[in-house]
Amino acid sequence: MQDSIVNPIQVKVWRGNAGGGKFADFDVPPQPAQTVLDVVTWIQRNADASLSYRFACRVGMCGSCAMMVNGIPRWTCRTHVNKVLHDNRLTLEPLRNLPVIKDLACDMSGFFEKWKRAEGQFAGSASRHQPVATISPRESQRSAANAAIECINCAICYAACDVVAWNRGYLGPAALNRAWSLQNDVRDSRHSERLQAVASDGGCVQCHSQQGCTAHCPNELNPTASIAGLKRMASVDFMKKKYRQRYG
Amino acid sequence: MKAHRRQPLYLAFLLHRVSGLGLALFLPFHFYVLGLALNGEAALDRALDWTTGPLFKLAESGLVLLLAVHLFGGLRLLALENLPWSDRQKNYAAIAVAASFFCACGFLLRAF
Amino acid sequence: MVELRLYLAQRISAAIMAPLVLLHIGVMIYAIQGGLSADEILGRTRGSLLWGGVYGIFVLAVAVHAAIGLRNILREWWSLRGLLLNTLSWVCAAGLLVMGLRAVAAVVGSA
Fold first, then answer.
1. Residues A125 and A243 in one domain
2. Where are the beta strands (DSSP E) in C1-111?
3. ipTM
4. pLDDT in tens, A180-197
5. pTM, entire model
6. Which of A205, A233, A239 to mutate to test the interface with C (most CBs of C within 10 A)?
């Protein structure tokens, strides 16, 4: 099947597991309006059934298909081959900064652990017996929360971030972005605890504003701006505490 | 350079870090030369004689460039972290570099 | 919360140094005209409490700022941690402080 392909796309795919691996070469037939997910699927169905990779919705809603495409983290279902092809070549690797399970599938548990460490969960204080909170979307805090809320935890920002690569303890852009949206949610009851979590070692202060997260987020979110907001919150809180300690 | 880093604000970060490192490595030397004044004016003058050559003046302009780059880049970061977010981040990075060259050229032209 | 304190120390020392660096660049552009000489430099600084005070603050701020910046580099690019990382950082801070204050004393103190 491989020999009869006209003008094939030459694809290098990383194969291996946590112990290590190497690139395997495949020739894939070009198709009109082809996405990188189409390419990976073709390889698994026609060339090598043992290739492992993830996808789910295939329409850019779930983030499962995220991987490194020519060195840049992308959703493969939303990446058209003709936009990223270099000399008819594609290089596919699992997401950076996460351990590999097999081939193109990485272990996301570390990413979610950091989400939890940053207190990335909403902590409500009302019950079903209270009226629904009335919050205008135009309120400044709600606007700030809304601007950051569309994160689907695909880990592309995490893969793009060099501070994550250089500092194992760093919570990362996604977790911090979620923390920011919750800090701006007036219904949440754990603002103080969450601020402690994101202002501690490994938190928002480690960010160097490289803005790779913002450049590569497929949902066009801005974790750098969120992290800058957390830095301000943490700084003001710290100085208030120092002032109170000193002057009562 | 790795593909995911080929965007202007990563370069701005790199410039800030490298200029800071360069300045930190230069400072002990700078403090040493100034400290020669403890041995009298002549000692400092002997060291300053080295600075009359054109290569030296070029090097000094390079140092002024490093300092200016780090200053204006630093102001960019202080604004990013403390003022409301602006979407003009790439513009600010470019302005910072332009202002740095302005200062360094000012120095270079006066040095010759 | 060590990292938060270091972050604040770095940003505050940066804010202190911003006008001082502008001043320093201005002084350099002024002083380089006609070449550098000990006479010219020391003529300005000798016995001057103002120069001593301003540059003394500059040295203090740079010792804090540069040491924290170097600490980030040592941790992120050389993967140093714990005692070695902190010791090297303190050594940098102390070194810059001592050499810097010595330099200020050298140009301000009377002959």
1. yes
2. none
3. 0.93
4. 999 999 999 999 999 999
5. 0.95
6. A205
